[in-house]
Amino acid sequence: MPIFLHIVHSLSPFLRGFAALIVALWIAFLVRMIWQAMKVHKANRAILAVLDSVPAASSEERIDGLPLDRINLLRSAFQSSNEHAKDWWNSIEGSLLPLNSPLSEDRWFVSDAARDLFSSEELFEDYADVSHQAVPGILTALGLLGTFSALLLGLADLRYTDKAVLGLSDLINALSGKFFTSVLALGSSLIFVLAERFLFATRFERLYSKVCGRFDRVFPRLTQERVLIDIRKEALSQSVSLSNISSDLVGQLTGAFQQTILPSLSFDLAEQLTKQLLPAIQKMEGALERLESQKQDSVVGEFRSLVTTLETSITNALSDMGSRFHEQLTGSAHSEFAAVQETLSGTSQMLLQMNAQFELTRSALSNLVDAANTSSDHQAKASQDQAEALRQLMHGLIEEMGKNASSNLQNIAGALTNVIADLSRKVEDVSETMIRTVSNAAQGSQSSADALIAKSGAWTEATSQQLTTLLESIEARSGEFKAAGQSLLEAKSLLADVLDRNATALKSMESAARQVEGYTTALTVVARNSDDTQRRQAEVVALSRQIVEELKQTSAGNQGILDQYNRSLNEAKTVFGTLDTQIETLLTKINTGMREYVQTVESNFSVIVKHSNDYLPEISRVLQSQIQELERQLEELTSVFSKALQAGAE
């Protein structure tokens, strides 16, 4: 701790303020992340609490589905919860599927599992995961900014003199500040990443797993296998219902025969016998009264006529009764059979319609599969064509870029060649000019030196002569000195001319150097532009390759999805095709059985009618024998009456 305080105190005020800024930003980002995490965790804990308050689905409910009161209980619980739970329930409620049941109320299922219905990103959308992941980069960037700022401040005060280097202490303090800001930024970034990844992200993942697990335990899922099993059960129940038609029809026909035909037959028979026999008996009573009153001898003839009339009446009555019985029996049978036939025809039409509907469904599924295959083929071809076109475009672009690069390189090489040739030509001109100038200057210097040497020799000789004759003449010495001064002035002018020529040559060389520098700068710019162009072309090529790879991956993914879709459609087609064949076979068997049953019932009723027709003549014969017996008894009675009348007459 004292070392840390010593380091902090040794920093410059700017670096201390910058470090305080990094710490303040780290605390602000950390507090913001903790607040968002607690808020989102609390909102999603409310969803888990509502799901925990409802009992899990039992084994029967997983087969039959949830009742409506359970759904209403969940709906009311979520509506009374927070806004996040309400929105989540509104998004989930659309996935609830009702299953109709003829024996009870509707049952409810969910279409998919919890991880397929809602993802963790949707559940924790209020938690800004992307912005939190950018915080370590921001802190690290600030640390690097502080590092380079410290280096800049340390190097700004550094001064180099002949005696010492000034500002080394500030540079050392700046270096310590550099490491301090870097360590501070890296440490805060590390702590933030550990808190975000291993604390909050782990808690969110555990909460998401709990919510998904509880959701799957509360809500049963409706699968395709369950739907197919329900369809099979419904088909079996319909076949059982159709098989029970025969027993119900026999029971109805037996009940109708016992309750309707037999009572009406007995009542009509008694009524017809009463209607036919009552007039005959009344006539017999009248005849007896007339016999007793008139005592005529034609009693036997009267009785015979009465018996004949009675026989005729009874025979007609029985024949009428037999025909009416036959008609009623045949009409009832025909009406029952007509109703049965209409029912069977309606059933056959319904089965034909079901078969047609299944055929339409199968054809629609076949068309859908064909359309999906066609669309998949078209999409695959289009993707391949697009990939091929893009590949050709990239290939052409790369070739064009290569050509352009080669042409640019050729142009640059030509320009460089021209520039170098021009530069060499100008350098040669400058060199020749310098050589000529130097040669001229050397020649002038040589001539001046020769003249000076000659004059110096003459002056030396004159001086020696004058020294020898010094005492002779002062005026001759002064004249010689004057001549020597003039010679020196001439030499000075010659040297000034040489220096001027050298300055001109140096200026020419300086301008040539500036031109060379300009050409060098231009060449550097051209080289940089060429490097930038090549780098951009390389980036474009890399990006194009990446795009082509992504297109290939996307095409492969689409092809996989289409293959999976084709497999699902083929499986559905196989299932429905087999189901259609089974239903068609079952309905064909039912139709054949019903036809056989109708034929059997018709043959049985034909046998019944035949037996009735066979028994009616026998009944008529029995009645006729009884009538003959009655006639005989009447004849005996007539004879007794005749004898009694004769005895009374005597």
UniProtKB/TrEMBL annotation:
Give the coiled coil ranges: 620-647
Q: Which UniProt keywords apply?
A: Coiled coil, Membrane, Transmembrane, Transmembrane helix
Q: Which domain of life is it from?
A: Bacteria
Locate the transmembrane regions by residue number: 14-35, 138-159, 179-200
**What is the official name of this protein in its record?**
MotA/TolQ/ExbB proton channel domain-containing protein
